[in-house]
């Protein structure tokens, strides 16, 4: 699993969209949409990685509002604010990799602590189109080790920032998730879930990205089970 805090700052196309989860809603049950897995996604997990138990029965996306305690989300937000107060990216988003300690500073990345190998290579963290978060992309292409992606939103759409909605790009109808403090979205990372984030036009948007892998060689040990300091 990889954890990355992404803070999007301000930086139209007309498309038919529907809102999958509104900021004003309080989802007491998970809201989900099943979609067909892209063949390349299932083939890589099952055949290339030989990990068939990690292949989902169905691909899709889900949104939940009651999975993360409010105090946990609040503490994560306070940590993020303190860290990003010391370092700010010159690109469209400021990025902190919680595991390796890699953080954006100006046009470069620095390491806050060097006890763990980097989750992302220097090439992953270069200032590229991926840094411009508003471009449509597929997580599997951006970060090849990702097979499942999860996002925890730490700020509220409209209250803390304008713009910044998460948009799934589908063939006939795009689906939007409006960020809400404590809201979690989860989706398979293959081509079936192409997406982008609308440009933030005002305020600051905080989100925690968690990538889960089916590649055992890319797995990160749970720090809570490591007895070594």
From TrEMBL:
UniProt KW keywords: Dioxygenase, Iron, Metal-binding, Oxidoreductase
Q: Name one GO cellular component term.
A: membrane
Q: Does the keyword Iron apply?
A: yes
Task: Please give the cofactor(s) recorded in the UniProt entry for this protein.
Answer: L-ascorbate
Name any one GO molecular function: iron ion binding
Q: Which Gene3D superfamilies match?
A: q2cbj1_9rhob like domain
Where does the record place a coiled coil? none
Which Pfam families has this protein been placed in? 2OG-FeII_Oxy_3 (PF13640)
Protein name, as recorded: 2-oxoglutarate and iron-dependent oxygenase domain-containing protein 3
* Source organism (scientific name): Lepeophtheirus salmonis (Salmon louse)
List the top taxonomic levels of the source: Eukaryota, Metazoa, Ecdysozoa, Arthropoda, Crustacea
